[in-house]
Specification:
The structure is a homodimer of 251-residue chains.
Chain A (H helix, E strand, L loop, with lengths): L2 H7 L14 H11 L11 E6 L2 H7 L8 H4 L2 E8 L1 H8 L11 H24 L3 E4 L7 H8 L5 E10 L17 E3 L7 H13 L1 H10 L4 H9 L2 H17 L5
Chain lengths: 251, 251
């Protein structure tokens, strides 16, 4: 339909980057696009930390579980929910600095940070870069906060590695998009709906390979028993909750 | 630099829509783009509720505080953090259905929902539509959940009104984007940095008008005393926390 729609449809996760440098001009365009999106009450409740220094990448790598893209990518952008700047603005203008230390305010800042993050991704891909989201940023929040020197009311919520692709993988197999869309009200999923929605994915060669490697009968069990187990999730939920409190957001 | 970057730079909030209908073809392109983004572990932890029915708009309007765009927009998209579908998949495949009932898992689903929401926005704007985010969706979560019939593990996190613009406002005045970007580590904001960052905004005619209307000396106090007060924020924080627990996410 147009170039932008094609960019969005063609999104893939790129984990291997070429040696081609990302120019300052290109990075500036991505960052400016990130800062051009919608924001709660025009408060702009986010900050972006740019990592290009090799030493900084090495420091963060263990907390990204040493995924290769965490050290191999030329640029890493960490998007933070940030009420610090706005609170400082309030402080220096004799306004209440305690109004935004709650879960609702944190939620607004998370939304702002993610709007910015996705804008950066779309901008980067439109300029020929490839990228990968590192979910690990929400696991080891306290370690990243130490390394990036995040003050009160700043919480990392998204981390994206970027560079020119060395290898561009094929499109990821996703559920049929109409299965994620509901008209007027939520239409709950019964067994038949789930079977239909997952049919293509479950029948794929990729899935068969994963099941073989994991010696498990289906993908759901690969997720719950190997990739994202209850024990891990509950542990990292506790880390996140403690960190939010430490940063000054009452949960 | 290219059409996509221009679309991102040119974003404005559009609250008044023309009578021009949004075709099914256009809406499908937007929804497909929404479903094409990155997602945690390819779990696709979101759902989109499409509102076009006038009666549904009227039901929701009071909880959007009767903002005109909540009834006047031809299309409203509500993006939900959704672990329901994945949990049902687990249930029908004899996998653990209790692994994702925690704050960390909720966080992943919020991220997925917002990636989808911002993709939808970029797609819509590239096709000539205008849009407005309704922050009210995170205030009155329980009422929206009733109206949209959201089951366990589904939480509305973004709501966007869309249509062809009747009036396209000028670009919103934002902070200089470089003030939101930090190189390698977070550089905290002292008074001088805050003064510099907010100087242009504080000197604008728009700000002067707002201060005159509110009879207050600065924008910070307009936010803390009028727009988003501590009492309101803490009330809606409690509503949100209670709702997350009700939906099965332990906070």
């Amino acid at each position: 339909m147009n170039e932008t729609i094609n960019t969005l449809y063609d999104h893939v996760t790129v984990r291997e980057y070429s040696n081609r440098e990302v120019s300052d001009e290109t990075l500036d365009a991505i960052l400016k696009a990130a800062c051009s999106g919608s924001t709660m009450g025009n408060m702009q409740l986010f900050s972006i930390i740019v990592t290009r220094d090799e030493e900084m990448k090495r420091k963060m790598a263990p907390y990204h579980f040493n995924q290769q893209q965490a050290t191999q990518a030329p640029v890493i952008l960490t998007f933070c929910a940030d009420f610090r700047r706005f609170n400082r603005y309030c402080e220096f203008r004799d306004a209440d600095t305690t109004a935004y230390s709650n879960l609702q305010s944190y939620h607004w800042a998370v939304i702002d940070a993610l709007i910015a993050a996705q804008n950066a991704c779309v901008a980067a891909e439109s300029l020929g870069l490839g990228l990968c989201w590192l979910g690990t940023i929400t696991y080891n929040v306290d370690q990243f906060a130490d390394i990036l020197q995040l003050p009160q009311h700043v919480v990392p919520v998204a981390c994206i590695t970027m560079g020119y692709p060395a290898v561009t993988p094929p499109l990821t197999q996703k559920l049929p998009w109409k299965g994620l869309v509901h008209q007027e009200i939520y239409h709950d999923y019964d067994k038949e709906a789930i079977d239909r929605l997952y049919a293509e994915k479950e029948a794929s060669e990729e899935t068969k390979q994963i099941l073989k490697e994991n010696q498990l009968p289906n993908l759901a069990q690969v997720f719950t028993q190997r990739r994202y187990t209850k024990a891990d999730n509950e542990h990292f939920a506790e880390v996140l909750r403690d960190f939010l409190e430490k940063q000054g957001f009452t949960v």
